[in-house]
Amino acid sequence: MPNPASLPPLWLRDNCGCADCRDPRNGQKLFQITDLPEGLAVAAENPAAVDGAPGWEVRWTPDGHVSRYAESWLAADVQQSTGTGQGTGRGGDQRTEDAKTLWRAADLTAPGSLPTAAWADYRADPAVRLRTLDAVGRLGFALLTGVPADDGQVTRVAETFGYVRETNYGRIFEVRIEENPSNLAFTGERITPHTDNPYRDPVPTLQLLHCLVNSAEGGDSGLVDGFAAAALLREEDPAAFETLTRIPVPFRFADTSGGGAEVTAHRPLIGTDPRGRIREIRFNNRSIGTLRLPADDTRAFYTAYRAFARLLLRPELQLDFRLAPGDCLIFDNTRLLHARTAFASSGGRHLQGCYADLDGLFSTAAVLRRGVLDQLADLFAEQGSAEYFGEDVTQAQHMLQAGALAQAEGAPPALVAAAVLHDLGHFHGEVTGHDLMEGTDNRHSHTGADWLAQWFGPAVTEPVRLHVAAKRYLCAVEPGYFALLSPASVHTLAVQGGPMTPAEAEQFAAHPYGADAVRLRRWDEAAKDPQALTPGFAHFRPLLAELLAPGGTASLGVGAVA
């Protein structure tokens, strides 16, 4: 853990969070970088509690300004600045490959793996909405089912998380056979994997397709994870990958009918950030113009272009499905390539589409995430202020101490979160903690895990679910553990079933989250010290924000695309 004086002073001072430096309402800085004095340096540094957790108080020279920094904040930022764990979590760039879960078709064919949600649930339940939007950010797409098959409804879906991007195709575009189509998408022809509007700068980063009618023969849909495909190209043919990230392509679209449109952009097929991470795919063979390059560059480009095109057609990369009336697909147009089989003009196939942008979706998800964290903060401040059943600390102090112990041991973030949240089940359910003390098991571990599963993945919820079982396990297999229990914990052990039998202990030890639950249990038992320095909920809030709704798509609801 570095001390503040060892860090770049301008960086450290620029990140001072005091009310003189940042607006408390929105976090915006109240000074310019040129306002900071020349010769800025740390005059003194002293350990200090920051929101109840270890930290540093820094006095600056030459102006005497005082700043406070939590140790956990310093450690996270130093880690990022040294390049370890770069891009992970929401503190990094949400648009790069590091913030994504890359997939192939087989990864999303198992039951519960497809990110689907019913429209009614999405509208009514903020937790479902957050998981849906996070699935778009993480996997690149989500499917809403049961969306009313009404004209213009696709824009109303987009407006639940952002703003419709109007283009020369209008606010809404019709995907159906047209008599005089301005784009091949408006025919019944087969469409190979592509991204939309590569000729536009900036490109629309989200696309929505809402199925109104689909009774035609053919017209099945497909999705390819372009980031996964580009990463595969980088592994199999590094020279081709380098070429496609280096050479800009002239994309062009011209519509000479009516008022017409002519749009151009010059971008590489695979866009990367300054650190080389995949950030954008632009791939549309229909819209590539004529390259005018030296012969060697032209040959290299076309060799790499064909290699990438062949790779994108590999069956194992394409997720195939058929949209049914009422299905609305939301997908990242800078990452996923979409495709369509040919379809006959007989019968009918009519989709309505619109464009939107990822910044609106990310903003809405962040606001929903903030609401969840506010709800948790209220629980700690209100119900958490009550006594912790026979112990000398409150319930909130107990959970926060457990989180601090986990953090001090260097536990992974999900397990720290589990420690912080492990006893929230006492606040939910018909059987209270007081009932537990009077002899009725309230199964708070299961109640809490089920409640937390609205927002957190199994790496958080399953140690919570198992932390009572872990006490029973340790009492059965570890000599001397029983003697460490507080009187209240001894009492509840009997109510919760007592030490495990050998068969139960063997089954528990084989559980994939059993070892994590044991670690959590040890912090649980130690977190009852009324004299301990206990951080506030705000200390753990950034960590919890990073973990909200990352949990696999199963939490969205099982569903094969019809």
Whole-number radius of gyration?
28 Å
- At the fourth level of CATH, the homologous superfamily of the largest domain is Clavaminate synthase-like
> Quick one: CATH class of the largest domain?
Alpha Beta
What is the average per-residue confidence, as pLDDT, rounded to a whole number?
Answer: 88
Description:
It is a single chain. Helices cover 36% and strands 17% of the residues. Mean pLDDT is 88; it is low at 79-89 and 552-562. Helix 7 crosses helix 8, helix 10 packs antiparallel against helix 11 and helix 11 (413-421) packs across helix 18 (537-547). The chain has three domains: 4-81, NE0471 N-terminal domain-like; 97-363, Double-stranded beta-helix (4-Layer Sandwich); 382-531, Hypothetical protein af1432 (Orthogonal Bundle). The protein is globular. It has 18 helices and 17 strands. The strands form five sheets. A six-stranded mixed beta sheet has the order 4-5-15-8-17-6.
